Amino acid sequence: MLHPEIFDNHGFYYPIGNSPAINLVGYLPPEIDAEVLLLGCGDVRNILFTLFTEPSDGIGNGAQRKYHFTCCDFEGAVIARNILLLAMILKNEETTTMWPIYYDFFMSEKCSQALKRHLGELLSASEDVDSWLKSNIGKVLTVGSKSTLAVVRHFWGAWMKDLNDKGREGQRRKSVERELSNIVKEHHHNRSVISLARSAGPLTLEIVQASIEHFNHYWKHGTTDRQSQRPPVPNPTFCLSKFGKKLSVHYGTNPLSGFHLSTAVVPFGPSDFQPMHGSSDFTPLVKCAKQEFELWCQAFRKARDDNTVTICFFVDDALGLCGNLSPVTDPTGIKEINETNSISKGYLYNHPNQFNVIDVSNLIDHLGTYNILLSVLPLLRKNHTSYLNTETLLHHEFDLDHGTEALYNVFGVDPASLFTLLGITVVDLICGQTSISHISEHQLEAFGKGPQRHSRLVWKWISSFQPGGLSENCALILQRPEFAYDEGTMIAFLAAIYKKLFTIENHTWAMQQLQKSLQKGSLINFIQHNSRTTFSLLLQRIKKVTSKTVDWGSLVEKLTVVIAYECGSLIASCFQQEQDALNHLHGVKTTDYLRDHPAIAAFKYGRQMGLGEHRHSNALTCITISVPIKAFHKLLIRDSKTIGNPQLQINLACGSMANHFCALRRSFGKLDAVDASEPGLFIQQGAPTFKEDFDGWIGTSDILYSCMVPTWFILLNSCEASLSIVSTPVTSLLVDDFGPLMNLFEASVRDRGKVRLSTEFPLNKSFCDSPEALKSARESYQIKDKAFNTTKDDKSNQKPTPNSSGVQSEYKLLMVGRHQRQSPQIPWLQMLGGGSNQHAHNETTRPKISRISYRWSVESDKSLVKLLEDKAPISTTKFGSSTIRIHLGPTSKAVTFPFPICGEIKISVARKSKFIEIDTPLYDGDKTPIYCHFPIGITNKSHRSISPWSIHRINLDNSPSVLIDLTKHDKGSYEWINSVATFSLSKQERANINSSPTKYFGDLMSEIKETIHMILVRYTGIQGSKHSAFVLSCVGIGGYMLIYVKNIRIDLSGQSITADCALLPFEDNTISQIAPMLLNLHNAPLTNSPEESKAWLQLSPSWVERCRTWEHKPNCQYLKTSRVPLSAPDLRIGDSPICSCGKGIFPKEFHDDPVIKPLLRYATRAALGPLFPPPYSKELQNLQELIAAVSGINLSTLTVAEPKERVCAACGKEETEDRKLKKCVACMNIEYCSKECQKKDWKAHKKTHKS
Questions:
Q1: In whole angstroms, what is the distance from residue 113 CA to residue 44 CA?
Q2: Which domains does the chain have, with CATH numbers?
Q3: Closest by alpha carbon to 41, among 1, 83, 92?
Q4: Which residues 6+ apart lie within 8 Å of 305 measured at CB?
Q5: Rg value, the chain, Cα
Q6: Which residues sit opposite 692 in a β-bridge?
Q7: DSSP per residue over 282-333, as a string?
Q8: Nearest-CA neighbor of 685 among 621, 776, 612, 608?
Q9: What phi and psi values does residue 86 have, to the nearest 5 degrees?
Q10: Which is a Gene Ontology cellular component entry for this protein (predicted)?
Q11: Torsion of CA 263, 264, 267, 273, to 10 degrees
């Protein structure tokens, strides 16, 4: 219901992931059990890599972390494949057998027999839910609903049927070969696909040529490896999906994409450094991927043996699952809707309803940012460590062309203002940096801007950062603030969001996009990701944080008029009935006509009565249209490339009145008949029932479309309902087929055979096909509802709230900006905004929160009133990012604002009214304090858990180490390390550093990044002499910290590099002991400004915590002092910022190094890596600009070599299955089809031949 319904009988199947695996719990402290929700989970690479890269034996002597993964994908074949693979791993199947089954289009007879055996075991164990959950596999690989088991069992059975049908195997093989060839011709012809290279992260340019060769090989031969002949059996798991028995695999699919191909150059284990130097031989890529796959399998088996992992699977749409996971945390706020949905799918309630990690893959590209946030936020635990991970793969609005406007373009309003209202933020918006690298994207864009750009964002609940670290009690997160604000500017703010949500309804915008598409010669698919439910849920969330002093009802009424007249949508008024219905459902506002009895409303607003339908008193009614599948015939036979996936809507029309409804629910099946003998309009009490047809678009059943509509409208005489295609510049091509209204189906609302009216949404009876089963399902739902009501939030560390309402503070938002266009039809619009008309010359000024204020009322405290009356001195002190302490004489009050603040604090005193008011600007990213750049704190005292807020963890021992050997490899082989460090700089930071011939002093982040850069490149020896020891020295004070780098390692999850090092801050009480040892240490001094020195002291605990493998002790100094860093807030040189719990704990290779061994007892292991600008920053460097600036080379004139067909050097014949080419054994560069051709070509070839 959140995402508009589309005609989706065609689309792409994604059996394999298209981006490298990430550590799903990388921002979660290692002591905390992981409850992870994966929406749009795709394949299992992220789960397997997470289990591999995290310490498998726990931290120190502590208990091992438990993992519960809840995986959801709307494609049943994906979930069926995932369970199949994981079951094979648990059954100890050979890797060489599993790989072709999971990754290749064709497999051997041996693999085919193994697949049949495993499918047989899965089918035997899945005869019913109870059997599955009691099986050995089902105890680890659970299912969250009966429908999930039914769907995956359907696919397992279909695959088994294909494998058993040997008589048609040859025909299926030829069909797959033909489809592969067609995909290559349509999508790969005359172009080089380089997207696979991003999986090498910092080594992208090393493997570009090899990745192109492998991509072409895979799509030509259907196998990962080079083989003498194509295996005989087509893989059925690639050939059947929700789109039917056709090859719908996405044209960018490659089996190596999900692995870390940097390990082809920097292998796991003590292997040699193996630079590829642009080689086109893809053998190292295949080898490293299979090696990593084997490591993943071992990790999963160990987690099973240790009883630390459970995976729960759902076949469901992501947004629907969020609504069904918990009735209480349901984002739709409509219990009855979720009840029918959950019961229809047979939910088992064997899953968490709150999560500390939510990963949504790149669903933002397909479902929209607002829909994702509004759906998942109610499911995200409210504490410092919980987070949401989002990715984008399409350019979307996160486009470098938008630069710093990128986030504004995503939301349509000032992002900081929106985040204040939602309580969540993008981490790097506040911190100004991220530890996640996107260098591969910058490097790939050097070859031309393609349709993809991969980026990752991490979102967390807004915290109050303090110089002494985050506070464990999470007061700011757990409180529910309320806001007062000016009605007019908030209307302008919400109207701007509405305009963004429904941009494609703006005719001017649509025509501009059409013109751009014609100029580029490409089709723009006008898919709208948002429905009126999206806007209603946003209003619901804003209402929850709105002060009772704001006239909410008046605001919504005026907002409705502004939307109709000022937002550019020509059809907004046609959706007003739907918006009002949804607002009523979500408790936003009930409009007057929905308060009236429907019969009275029909008379008042429709000017005509129905047939005396006074018995129907519900304000809303569910309408379900049963559309025969033949109504879609003309769409089914059309080429999908010409129309894309058109959006559908239900229309209600009566005379000249018409209303559209896009918040639809769709099912496949036939409604059960009901006994409705009474005359007149029939509205069924309760939920109509049907049996789901899992064949979907390839079946023969009706398609059921349902939505909630105002009852009064269907009471009107001659009310007609229809299902139509939403009009866009693209769908206008369908007018000839469906007429100007583009109706697919229409009927009278009184036609009981085609239209069903009911008080609830239809209920699928496939999993509750008896009254007793339905009653039991409803009771289970109610029991779970009550249980969830008692545990709505994670309250393990929650302290009592100051008042019973849970509202801790009320703030006033001082908003600026408003829509300036005046409309003579609505005079009161001139009053909106409440301010002067100083910006009247602009069409619009962007509405945003400029300042935020808090009023301290002292009226109830006589002693405070006395101080105020006696004119006691009043002042303020700012603490941390968002706390201000108001001083009134000897007393004070701390006020924590819901978003970081900055700038001048204004004080207003009303002695007669007995209050003090402070207001301050909202943080704008300028002059960020050190502790906001690098927040860290105690996140759970009982677990002795310390965690950086903005830097992800890395398991150094499972990260490949770069062998630096300049006697075997020239400096150019390690230049990629310099590139990573270089791309950590923004354009401005690079300009800052280049402006100074010596160490740059000025901008803090420029200084820090230059120091990190120098450590990395000087350790490798590619710039200056090689060093392992570095002493940081503060100007005017001297040395304060030793950094001893033992290795450079690949940060696989962050697609970056990190220095595996010993960190030794110089402490006043130990400097005399270590000084003699330092004198014998050949080190490189690195000079820092006083500000940078403080930043390094602030950062050092984060470097340590991100790779910690030990427990903090019960007497840890962090816990005793409640300060992280330990030397905060002064960060004085001579005081250690790091606790002593991890001192001396290093792996053997450190202790075997005689240079650092004597100092290890004073040092702590750390992972020091580059810090990057946010991926949406315009200040990101571009490889084309960078190389042009350095060497004068114009990359726009360079192209990637086109894939070459393998042909005989003499006769030019291509290689075929029957005619294999063989290389000249000496030079290995030239290929011939026969000895005769080689002899014929010898005279020409011997000139370049090298023996």
A1: 23
A2: 487-517+530-538+548-765 (no CATH), 812-921 (2.60.40), 1204-1251 (no CATH)
A3: 83
A4: none
A5: 32
A6: 669
A7: -HHHHHHHHHHHHHHHHHHHHHHHTT-EEEEEEES-HHHHHHHH-SSS-TT-
A8: 621
A9: -65, -35
A10: nucleus
A11: -120
Secondary structure E strands in 124-276:
141-143, 233-234
Burial group, residue 552, by CB count within 10 angstroms (0-12, 13-18, 19+): middle
Backbone torsions φ then ψ of 1169, nearest 5 degrees: -135, 170
Residue range 436-443: average pLDDT? 88
Q: Per-residue confidence at 349, pLDDT binned at 50, 70, 90?
A: confident
Determine the Cα–Cα distance for residues 435 and 453; give it in Å rounded to an integer: 18
DSSP conformation letters of 874-904:
EEEEEETTTEEEEEETTEEEEEE-SS-B-SP
Q: Where are the beta strands (DSSP E) in 533-638?
A: 620-627
DSSP SS3 for 150: helix
DSSP-H helix ranges across 1021-1155:
1071-1079, 1090-1105, 1117-1121, 1148-1151
8-state DSSP, 184: I
CA-wise closest residue to 605 among 622, 588, 592, 616: 592
- Determine the distance from the C-alpha atom of residue 25 to the mean position of all C-alpha atoms in its chain, rounded to a whole number: 13
- Asked whether the predicted pLDDT for residue 220 surpasses 90, the reply is yes
Report how far residue 1011's alpha carbon sits from residue 989's, in angstroms, rounded to the nearest whole number.
Answer: 12
**Per-residue pLDDT tens for 351-365?**
888 999 999 999 998
User: Are residues 619 and 681 in contact, defined by beta-carbon separation less than 8 angstroms?
Assistant: no
Chain-centroid distance, C-alpha 650: 31
- Contact criterion met (CB below 8 Å) for 1112 and 946: yes
Residue 704 has pLDDT above 60, yes or no: yes
CA atoms of 1046 and 1059, how far apart (whole Å): 7
Measured distance CA(934)–CA(1100) in Å, rounded: 10
Residue type, position 178, single letter: R
- Residues 878 and 888: their CA atoms lie apart, in Å, by 15
As a dihedral over the C-alpha atoms of residue 737, residue 743, residue 748, residue 751, rounded to 10 degrees, the angle is: 70
Give the residue from 914, 900, 906 showing the smallest Cα distance to 876. Answer: 906
C-beta separation of 1016 from 977 below 8 A? yes
737-783 tens-digit pLDDT: 888 899 999 999 999 989 999 999 999 988 876 556 556 655 655 55
* Distance of alpha carbon 1100 from alpha carbon 1115, whole angstroms: 20
The DSSP 8-state label assigned to residue 698 in this structure reads G
Neighbouring CB atoms inside 10 A of 933's CB total 20
DSSP letters spanning 1198-1248: --PPPPPP-B-TTT-PBP-SSS--EE-TTTSS-EESSHHHHHHTHHHHTTT
The whole-angstrom separation of Cα 559 and Cα 551 is 12
- pLDDT at site 796: 34
Average pLDDT over residues 657-684: 88
- Cβ–Cβ < 8 Å for 391, 369: no
SS3 773: helix
Q: What is the per-residue pLDDT across 571-598, written as a single tens digit (0 to 9) for each? A: 888 899 999 999 999 999 999 999 999 9
Cα–Cα dist 90/125, whole Å: 15
∠ CA 604-622-504, nearest 5°, is 85
- C-alpha span between 889 and 810 (Å, rounded): 24
In the beta sheet, which residues pair with residue 1041?
1032, 1065
- What does the block give as tokens for 179? 């489809």
3-state DSSP assignment of residue 941? coil
Cβ proximity of 845 and 867 under 8 Å = no
Q: Tell me how far apart the alpha carbons of residues 606 and 1250 are, in angstroms, rounded to a whole number.
A: 91
Q: Is 253:14 a contact under the CB 8 Å cutoff?
A: yes
All residues at 6 or more sequence positions from 1025 whose CB lies less than 8 Å from its CB, including other chains = 1018
Segments in 389-431 forming alpha helices (H): 406-411, 415-422, 427-431
Contacts of 910 (CB under 8 A, 6+ apart): 916, 917
CA distances from 304 to 34, 42, 573 (A): 15, 21, 56
Backbone dihedral angles phi then psi of residue 626, each to the nearest 5 degrees: -95, 105
